[in-house]
Amino acid sequence: LGMVLTGGALIPAVYAERTRMAAASGEAIVNLVNKGITSRDIINEKSLENAIRVLNATGGSTNGVLHLLAIARELGISSTVMLDKFKKIGESTPLVAKVNPASKYNMEDFYHAGGIPQVMREIEEKLNVEVMTVSSNTLAEELNKKTYGKINREVIKTIDEPFSTFGGIAIVEGNLAPNGGITKPSAIKKEMHLFKGVAKCFNSEEEAEEAILAKEIQPNDVLVIRYEGPKGGPGMREMYKAMKYLYGLGLAESTAIITDGRFSGTNNGCFVGHISPEASECGPIALVEDGDEITINIPCGEITLHVDDETLSQRKQKWVKPKKEIPSGILRLYAKLASSANEGASMVIDEEE
């Protein structure tokens, strides 16, 4: 996005370099104020494209999609435009960096291997290098600066010999997710990029966790965890426990999870999150029943509920939203005003109100 000084993103917490970077950031802020440069001069459609590109090149968190959609909304860029960018950029971006859980290397290893600046140098030909950064220099000028440390090619590959020829984040759509869902192929074994299974439905994260720990889940099950979206959660809780439990029980490579909630960046296994519309808005995920067949096809960008439209229409007529006690205050306000995940799950206030 251009909002952090070059090299500032991955400095480990205990390093003195963090203190030095903090001081340099303060100087940069004063410089920006003196020059009258604001965040809107730095964050724009081209810098958002760069952020999507780097997210894919590093196999970053699926949450990055949510945040970038919300930022784009503030800029007046529609979710339709942004999701199209995610699709096209993901398909044309090689995965050049891998860290845990997709690799044995961690973020400190990534930092010493060259970090985000080195990733951007590897994919420079695909970036909008003319954009301004908080240094008040262009991205091209920043990437031309001296590199420090030794590049570890087991952590950061070249654009010509990447880990894979497509990015780490993928959009999937279909009758189960008309407005899209998010998955992370870089954290999913290639053999699971096409998964077909049978639905087991849960109306909360806790219900799913209880079933997993009670050993009620079998290979070939697709856990459908719903009513955990922006409005339903409220706030899109992370389904990391469910995935960790499946891993611990040896089911991570034979089951899948789909949800209108989201996931932690440390999760792996077959999963699709951010399914939109969410269950609380009577999206198709609310109409799934135990025993329905579901196919997740990451290479084709599809997620399919094998139930005909007429049956789904009949189920929708009978649908009743489960009651959920939401504490008064900000959570209740958020549940009322939150937009869908495909729009960044940000709060939207109608101008007429």
Notable characteristics:
353 residues; alpha/beta; Glucose Oxidase, domain 1; 2 domains; six-stranded mixed sheet; 12 helices; 8 strands; globular
Description:
- With 353 residues, this protein is α/β, with parallel strands linked by helices.
- It has two domains: 128 residues, no CATH class; 172 residues, Glucose Oxidase, domain 1 (3-Layer(bba) Sandwich).
- The chain has twelve helices and eight strands.
- The strands form two sheets. It has a six-stranded mixed sheet with strand order 6-5-4-3-7-8. A two-stranded antiparallel sheet has the order 1-2.
- Helix 4 packs across helix 5 and helix 9 runs parallel beside helix 10.
- The longest helix is centred in the first third of the chain and has 20 residues.
